Automatic annotation (TrEMBL):
<dbReference type="Pfam" id="PF00499">
    <property type="entry name" value="Oxidored_q3"/>
</dbReference>
<comment type="function">
    <text>NDH-1 shuttles electrons from NADH, via FMN and iron-sulfur (Fe-S) centers, to quinones in the respiratory chain. Couples the redox reaction to proton translocation (for every two electrons transferred, four hydrogen ions are translocated across the cytoplasmic membrane), and thus conserves the redox energy in a proton gradient.</text>
</comment>
<dbReference type="InterPro" id="IPR042106">
    <property type="entry name" value="Nuo/plastoQ_OxRdtase_6_NuoJ"/>
</dbReference>
<keyword id="KW-0874">Quinone</keyword>
<feature type="transmembrane region" description="Helical">
    <location>
        <begin position="14"/>
        <end position="33"/>
    </location>
</feature>
<dbReference type="GO" id="GO:0008137">
    <property type="term" value="F:NADH dehydrogenase (ubiquinone) activity"/>
</dbReference>
<keyword id="KW-1133">Transmembrane helix</keyword>
<keyword id="KW-1003">Cell membrane</keyword>
<feature type="transmembrane region" description="Helical">
    <location>
        <begin position="40"/>
        <end position="69"/>
    </location>
</feature>
<keyword id="KW-0520">NAD</keyword>
<protein>
    <recommendedName>
        <fullName>NADH-quinone oxidoreductase subunit J</fullName>
        <ecNumber>7.1.1.-</ecNumber>
    </recommendedName>
</protein>
<keyword id="KW-0472">Membrane</keyword>
<dbReference type="InterPro" id="IPR001457">
    <property type="entry name" value="NADH_UbQ/plastoQ_OxRdtase_su6"/>
</dbReference>
<dbReference type="GO" id="GO:0048038">
    <property type="term" value="F:quinone binding"/>
</dbReference>
<comment type="similarity">
    <text>Belongs to the complex I subunit 6 family.</text>
</comment>
<dbReference type="GO" id="GO:0005886">
    <property type="term" value="C:plasma membrane"/>
</dbReference>
<keyword id="KW-0812">Transmembrane</keyword>
């Protein structure tokens, strides 16, 4: 576990710690939303964060497919 944390660059760590709470907030907002519009916006936020995570992990095709298909 410690080896994985040490292998990530500082930029990846910063992006992860910024985007992870946003993705988590979007997922919680999706579940707790009373309006379908708000739930859809929360889903879009979560999916965009996932796409950025994929792109950061050297999977740009998967990230772009995530954006084009699921968002």
């Amino acid at each position: 576990m410690i080896e994985l944390a040490q292998s990530a660059s500082a930029g990846e760590s910063v992006f992860f710690w910024i985007l992870a709470p946003i993705a988590l907030g979007g997922a919680i907002g999706l579940v707790l939303a009373r309006s379908a519009i708000h739930a859809a916006l929360s889903l879009a936020v979560t999916m965009m964060c996932l796409a950025v995570f994929y792109i950061m992990q050297s999977a740009p095709f998967l990230g772009f497919v995530q954006i084009m298909v699921y968002t």
